[in-house]
Amino acid sequence: MMMKEREDGFVIPAGGELLLEPGGNHIMLMDLDEPISTGQQITLTLEFDGAEQDVTVFARDFQGGEEEYVGGGHAASGHEAHGGMTHDG
Fold first, then answer.
1. Cα separation of 69 and 60, whole Å?
2. 54, exposed or middle or buried, with CB in 10 Å at 0-12, 13-18, 19+?
3. CA 39, CA 66: separation in Å to the nearest integer?
4. CA trace torsion 63, 67, 68, 71 (10° rounding)
5. How far apart are alpha carbons 75 and 73 in whole angstroms?
6. What is the pLDDT of residues 62-74, one digit of tens each?
7. What are the b/e assignments for 13-47, b being 16+ CB within 10 Å?
8. Residues 50, 77, 24, 39, CA torsion sign
9. What's the CA gap between 4 and 86, in Å, rounded?
10. Which of 37, 58, 80, 84 is the most buried (most CB within 10 A)?
11. HEC letters along the chain
12. What is the pLDDT of residue 61?
């Protein structure tokens, strides 16, 4: 399985939805200043065309598969929220 950043992010049609889940479309946090612990509550700001939406989530423990990342090896703890990662494979 090969993961890569979606250059144009995700497209959600008006009135539609997008499911984010491990192994599917998801948001990866990279180059974090501090690690995120399992159970920690964090707030993410999602950017949409012309709008922003804050969402609060709880960090879960997830032992991912043997994934490869296009563009080099990204660490699981990072600083930027790279919205739009997808599995190609």
1. 21
2. exposed
3. 24
4. -50
5. 6
6. 666 555 656 544 4
7. eeeeeeeeeeeeebebbbeeeeeeeeeeeeeeeee
8. negative
9. 6
10. 84
11. CEEEECCCCCCCCCCCCCCCCCCCCEEEEECCCCCCCCCCEEEEEEEECCEEEEEEEECCCCCCCCCEECCCCCCCCCCEEEEEEEEEC
12. 77
Residue in this structure with the two tokens 């997008």, named with its chain if needed: 18
Non-local (6+) Cβ contacts of 47 within 8 A are 83
Q: With the CA atoms of 66, 67, 68 and 74 taken in that order, what torsion angle do they form, in degrees rounded to the nearest 10?
A: -110
Q: Which residue has the tokens 């919205």?
A: 83
- How many other CB atoms are there within 10 angstroms of residue 87's CB atom? 15
- Block residue for tokens 């993961």: 3
* Number of residues that this document lists for the chain: 89
Instruction: Please tell me the distance from the alpha carbon of residue 41 to that of residue 21, in angstroms, as a whole number.
Output: 17
